[in-house]
Fold these 3 entries.
Entry 1:
Amino acid sequence: MHLVKLDLSKNRLQQLPLDFGRLVNLQHLDLLNNRLVTLPVSFAQLKNLKWLDLKDNPLDPVLAKVAGDCLDEKQCKQAAVKVLQHMKAIQSEQDRQRQRKLQAEREMEKKREAEQRAKEAQERELRKREKAEEKERRRREYDAQKAAKQEMEKKTKKENVQTRKPASSSRPPQPPRHKRSWSRSVLRVLLFVLLCVLCTLAACKLTELQHQPLCVSVNTLYEDVLAALQNHKTLQNLLQQNSQQ
């Protein structure tokens, strides 16, 4: 806006608009006899202000002291300069406070973010530890089941061995195969010899070969054996009779 001079005296104004500082071209401002207590911070933007009258307003004591009385042209010009400096100081202080507030908010946000990251890290570590514990628990369960299965297999095998033992011990001991085969061979030889003897004896007794020298010897041996057997039988009978008496 290109407003240069503004007379707002005797209007019972209690406050000026917050954006009053947009009147950057304003040079002469008369606010005599109103109800102003403070000025908006944007007042500091009136960098071209050369003349100011704030008499007869219930100003804040600090602002009233800065503005002065404005009883003549010189005092009104000084009032414009001093009030602008004062409002710029207020604006600077508010800016610093705003910056400190923003800084504090940023630090608080960083702190919250750090706490959130720490919390997330703790949660991840907790989940990782729980996962490791779950894995270890499953491994122990698997080892226990495997050990129990092996123990059961050993027990079953031991019971089977103990069950087979009595059956095997009840069987009569069998002679070795080579001994059985040798006994059979001897028995066969004896049977063969006996058969040969019987055949020879029958030939010598029943055929014409009985007058041959070999058969004569065989017949004589046969008769001697029969006589010996008869004498042995007679002796057994006598002994039996004597034992009965």
Entry 2:
Amino acid sequence: MALISVEDLAELDDEQLDDDITDSSEPMDEEDEDRLLAHWRAVGRGHHVSVPNEMRGPIAEMTQRNQDTEREQVPFAVISRREKMGEVLFEERVYPAGKWACITKSEKMYEQSISLAFMKLMRFICKESSVGRYLGMTVPVVAEFQLSENGGDFAKDVVTAFYLPAQFQNNPPEPNDPDITISHRESMRIISRAFYGTTTEETIQRQIQLFWELLGDMEGIHRHMYMVATYENPGVPERRNEIWFVRRDA
């Protein structure tokens, strides 16, 4: 989701939210939930989407659980890494086959599609499944999309995918939402490059351009299919993301 602006926040302090809410193990009171809902609605305005009142519960639960110790990393193996002066320029990785909860949205803008899809996935993660409880969070959440032949336009269909936690890989919970499907995705070989901040059509196109400039004439990569991997929640300023280029032989 979009980076929240100072104007949108209307003086809401992100650090204070983190200190007062995220680190607390006590149930969240109504005032805290109101502040969080206002925060997310401001973020949503940046992506031209509205955040409904029924998101209050999932937002509160995921905020309180937003700690590194409670987030499971999607498994992968590093094949190679290119560095320059100690900085990682990009990595090539293999991700094994596994089960993902997927949802396809076809809104006018990429950022609208990922925002609406992630809200549905949040509800699935928190309670709305055959398990009826919090499933656990895995990172990254991945958005898959295609660009036009000239690279200037996003295709309407955007697939947002959440890797099921290890305990559910062999026995996936059934989503209550018919828009969410549990899919077995084959292993994939990708080249990743980190970037920080917002994930909008404008910023992603810029990251793709920069990555191609870095890779030069490297062959065997899909030229129109890309992925964006997001590791942190929408309210984190300068949050970590990665642009993924997908190997044709993956």
Entry 3:
Amino acid sequence: MEQYFLATQKMEQEVMFPSLLRGVFPQQEGAAPATGGHTDLYERYQLLKAIKPVVEKGLASVTDQSPAGTGTNTDASSDNDDTMDAQLEERLSHHLAGLQQVLTHLTRDTNALTRRYSQILEQISPSEGQPSW
């Protein structure tokens, strides 16, 4: 999760003119640009910016919650509780794995967008040896 937050922070710091990303489509390494049905990098930038507070809020709500007391357990309900605990652990593990995949994907997209933005800036900025008139 830390990598995701660092990547979005870097994107927010580097992408000063998001409009430069309009009409620019993401490219896979070694592949031709794909334009059919895909969103351009400007739309991805807007999406990534919108997702960040949701992720931060979700993280804060998870850390703010405290476990509630459940009262006393009897021996008969203890076995049932153990089974439910095992199911909950399995479900939690499944959801955490899914969350990890989503965050990895978002981090990769954020880093690719930032890299592409830097390439665009290099293309439009004058070279060192040329006058800038």
